[in-house]
Design goal:
The protein is of the alpha/beta class and about 500 residues long. It contains 18 helices and 21 strands. Helix 6 (about 105-115) packs across helix 7 (about 120-140). The longest helix has 22 residues, at about 120-140.
Amino acid sequence: MDARSAKALSKDDWVKMAGDADSIFEGRCFINGEYVDATDGGKIEVINPATNEVCGTCAAGTEKDIDKAVAAAKESYKARTWLKMAPRKRMGIMMKFADLLQENTAELALMDSMNMGKPISDCINVDVPASAVNIRFMAECIDKMYGKIANTHEKALNLSVREPYGVVGLISPWNYPLLMGVWKLAPALAAGNSIVLKPDEHSPHSCIKIAELFVEAGGPPGVFNVVSGHGEEAGKSLALHPDVSKIGFTGSTEVGKLLLQYAGQSNMKKVSLETGGKSPMIYFADLPDMELAISTAYDSIYANMGEVCNAGSRIYVERGIYADFIDQFIAEGQGAYTPGDPLDPETNMGPLMSAQAQKRVLGFIESGKNEGATLKFGGNIPTGLDTGCFVEPTMFADVNNDMTIGREEIFGPVASIIPFDTEEEAVAMANDSIYGLCASVWTSNVSRAHNMAKAIESGMVYVNCYDVGDMTFEFGGYKQSGNTKDSCFDSVLGYTQSKSIWYNLG
């Protein structure tokens, strides 16, 4: 069902579709163009966090399954079944691939919503169309990857060309199951690689489904393979595999560090990481639009239940407007996001992804109370939603960088508002973090905006806005937030390696 039809569905319609999930959700591995069970027959129950009930299963892939998938990818790459196609033909297949995603909007949206609690409206209006846009953009890059000719002496010719890595392993997160999977696989495919994708076992179904859609679009079998399974088994095996030349990963900083170790223990494969964040939002007294500033602040931390790597969880406000900012944040932000049934198109906030995540976030909230922060609203499980993994939108004032909630990535709907007095103090506090993914600066002073953007240790800085942009915008951070750029032309180049060729013309 396409996007237009999906947008017309009511809550009752979605609930009915959810009742048929067994026939919609395919959980087997997809290897060499076919669905196959895990070699050992293992399965993982996928829990719907809105109900804490099983909504499907996926294969519990092991090292044996990773070996099969890597072998299929390696064979397809050696046979050049994908790479030998003319660039325009590969572009056409990827364009058709994007079309098929949109034609299956309802099914893909239902998978992501039931797997991790994402509101169905977000899946329909954001995740699926953004995934299709990403695939189309990467497809357009295929015939735009040029080599170079060096200026050397007349008896020689020096070429630099870009080539795929070969077999690429991709590990995607649970918080944007489809979209983050596409952010990895689309540039890797555009670059000409064959891939093995390991989706998170909590939300695997949409990534499994789109592997089938790639083949339906004309993609050769073996080019796009999916093995679901636990990270410590399937993910580790993929990262250690000697025939995998590169790993692309989005997820926690802790796992990212493990992947770097596995690369060193195996074949020194390249590792591209997009990891955690603790993004500062810095509001000066001369900000141009208080209403926009407030709405951007609560959207940055409450959207997607706060389960976002670039969530604006540290909100620094100049002391002259600090009290007013808090008052307006409470007045406007407290009711802006209301937890509810994610299958209701009117719901804009679902549950956290698991009971464990809920417990972790509630633990952070308790630490904020115990360490002296002032709880202004939220902090509890919403009334009437105690069967799921819900947490209320929460806001603390009087926070500082020494508090746990001011330093650690919470990955939940918890805002911390922190006062500052000077530009230098704001920079020092913003940079006082192991992370450096995103930042935002709000001011009417152009010079201050420019100076702040240069001074903040972050891979992305927004001025008088946040989390906007298009496919030309490089997404990636500094420090322990990662070492790569996603969602841009450079992401395609990141799945290639350069080769120098020297011709003696003498």
